[in-house]
Amino acid sequence: MKISININENISDTEIVINSRSLTPEIEKIIATLRILDQQMMVVKNDESYILDVVKIVYIESVDRKTFVYTENDCFESKLKLYEIEEMLCHGGFLRISKACLVNLKYIRSLKSELDRKIRLTLENGEQIIVSRQYADELKHRLGVK
């Protein structure tokens, strides 16, 4: 793969052009990553609404029919259902790891296999969350772990 960058002070908008023989999985991943950089979502904390950059989300969890969005040092609530957020973010570095949780793969510090084929993730903020057996293989695949 060849990467070229052209700096031109006369242009007003940044444009990214990809030249390829075909649309490969690598190119699709690059496109998804670029799209998520500009993505934001509305969240709530203490009856105040915030616009949150999606790249700052560490993980998202559904508890008692409420959806909580965790950043490195804060917790917000989203009015969206977990599956709606998953549809928005699944191609941009997020992965469902259990029935009730999505994780941002960029915030995984380490993983440890448990006896019952589950995986314990340690995140960059020190929190630990469990990947259920049903989602463990996909996590390993996405991270390139055997």
List the helices and strands and how they pair.
Layout: H1 25-37, E1 40-45, E2 48-53, E3 59-63, E4 66-70, E5 75-78, H2 82-89, E6 94-98, E7 101-104, E8 108-113, E9 119-123, E10 128-131, H3 133-143
Antiparallel strand pairs: 1-2, 3-4, 3-7, 4-5, 6-7, 8-9, 9-10
What report would you give on this structure?
This protein has three helices and ten strands; from the N terminus they run H-E-E-E-E-E-H-E-E-E-E-E-H. The protein is globular, with a radius of gyration of 17 Å. The chain has 146 residues and is α+β, with helices and mostly antiparallel strands. The mean pLDDT is 90.
Question: In sequence order, what are the helices and strands, one letter per element?
Answer: HEEEEEHEEEEEH
Taking the alpha carbons of the first and last residues, their distance comes to 25 Å
What integer value in Å does the Rg equal? 17 Å
Global mean pLDDT:
90
The outline comes out as globular
With helices defined by DSSP (H or I, 4 residues minimum), what is the helix count?
A: 3
Helix percent reads 10-25%
Strand order of the largest sheet: 5-4-3-7-6
